[in-house]
Amino acid sequence: MDELDRRLISLLRHDGRRSVSDLALELGVSRATVRGRMQRLEASGEVIGYTVVLRADVVSAPVRGLTMIEVEGRAKDRVVDALSGFAEVTAIHTTSGKWDLVAELSTDSLPALDTLLHRIRLIQGIVSSETHLLLATPRSSQARLGGRGRA
Fold first, then answer.
1. Cα angle vertex 42, ends 36, 47, to 5°?
2. Which of 38, 41, 42, 47 has the fewest Cβ atoms within 10 Å of its own Cβ atom?
């Protein structure tokens, strides 16, 4: 992957529906070059798909947080399975260091987050946890709202 591929991916992350013509103009290359790069990135598995971010996804769950979780012994798989059962847990990551897992959380209110955290702490195998609220997202690799007319 070269610099042109990285710039193309960056543009697509911000608006996956931009036209090939618009991308070519922004990148200073031909439409055929953009089309070929996109096909090559898809064929190589670097780009595995395109998505849409709905306003409802952001507005309906305005309280977001990250919970770092320490798991006892070999309970990781059991804890991951339990966390996967919560609709408010939008992603689970394994990590290195003090925390074994990081769970991304999304709720509609602080009381709902408090209830979720209480339920998470009841999961057998969790030794300790620490939660941080996400206040703002100045940069994301996800599509951004309010971007180039299509968000």
1. 120
2. 42
